[in-house]
Amino acid sequence: MKQFIKTMWQVMRSPSTHFSLGLLTLGGFIAGVIFWGAFNTGLETTNTEKFCIGCHEMAENVYVELQDTVHWSNRSGVRATCPDCHVPHNWTDKIARKMQASKEVWGKMFGTINTREKFLEKRLELAQHEWQRFSANNSLECRNCHDYKSMDFTKMSEKAQVQMRRAAERDQSCIDCHKGIAHQLPDMLEGNSEAFAQLEQSASVSSFKVGNNYFSVRLLPLYQDEALQTKGGQLNPVTPVKVVQIEGDKIKVELAGWRKTKGFGRVVNEDFGFNIISGFLTKDVAQSDAFVESFETKVDELTGLKWQRVTVQLWMKASALSDSTEPLWDYARETYQTSCSVCHTQPDEDHFDANTWPGMFNGMLSFVNLDGDTQALVLKYLQKHSSDFSETGH
């Protein structure tokens, strides 16, 4: 074998005795053209939609979803195919992307995503990889068709104009706001729920003392009786309560706040004039002197509504209460910064007052996936850190 390699090397480095240098050069050039043409022809074949849905686990998943979007059918008749959005145009990035995509073929062959159920289990991970790629290249594939400089903002809705002009000023990546525009969003609630469960476990205290104040970690049910059989209401996250009685794994707590006298007075707010919800009462409890003790009554000059200061005593499970607001605010702050501010310039917490934040926050919820506990916690965080509680607020 060693002698064979040596002989071949001598043949390769010896001058030709039968063909001219020009012929050899021309032959090498032609062979190179044929090889390069064959290589690019094969490469372009892999850039067709037919090839994409034939090799990747998408024919019955994301490809079907695409057909219900504006990228498939629209009034202009311009359709985006799989490689338009997922394959870079420049050669080096294209080859790198091809190598990355081969992992999906591997997953198809070895059965990790070969069924709809398995695909959905991996969907969040796959989507996050693609979002990261788009974020890293500033949504390059999107910009092959969409260009801020070519957009006519006057033809957009008023809300879209504001957001798109801001995005253009910052040259913002398209994927920041347009996840799910061509395919369905993965279920991200499970991840939120797991993170919230960890927060609850780490922040909750295990023992209580009569007379001490604690803060609810999440939405918690309240009951009229010690047996916890008859519903009495619900606590919102980060609501202070005072323990007045302890019976095994059940505690009786006192909730203090203000409510509007109009209607049944079921909503208990943290303070006069602020729509910062501490909790909700059932109709029976709200109208019962056995549970609710009322004090002074004041009129809100801005609305003309009467407010009443009250305390309510109800039973609950001795769990999911914290002796500090710090871990709750830390979790809410991180959630707000990572989940609620990717579509526009992030409003500072003190940009709005406490009574304005609920409307603003509800408008954000259609763009994010948050479970009920997280929604209530983040809203309470924004209200408690609004301009009403900040010296630097607008």
Would you spell out the secondary-structure blueprint of this structure?
Elements: H1 2-13, H2 21-45, H3 49-55, H4 62-66, H5 82-86, H6 91-109, H7 116-136, H8 140-143, H9 158-170, H10 189-203, E1 213-216, E2 220-223, E3 231-235, E4 240-247, E5 250-260, E6 267-271, E7 274-281, H11 283-286, E8 292-299, E9 306-317, E10 321-322, H12 326-339, H13 357-364, H14 372-384
Antiparallel strand pairs: 1-4, 1-10, 2-3, 3-7, 4-5, 5-9, 6-7, 8-9
Helix pairs in contact: 12-14
Explain what you see.
The chain has 394 residues and is α+β, with helices and mostly antiparallel strands. The chain folds into 4 domains: 49-145, no CATH class; 147-179, no CATH class; 206-322, no CATH class; 326-389, Orthogonal Bundle (Cytochrome Bc1 Complex, Chain D, domain 2). The protein is built from 14 helices and 10 strands. Strands 8-9-5-4-1-10 form a 6-stranded antiparallel β-sheet, with no helix packed on it. The longest helix is centred in the first third of the chain and has 25 residues, at 21-45. It is elongated and about 110 Å long. The mean pLDDT is 84.
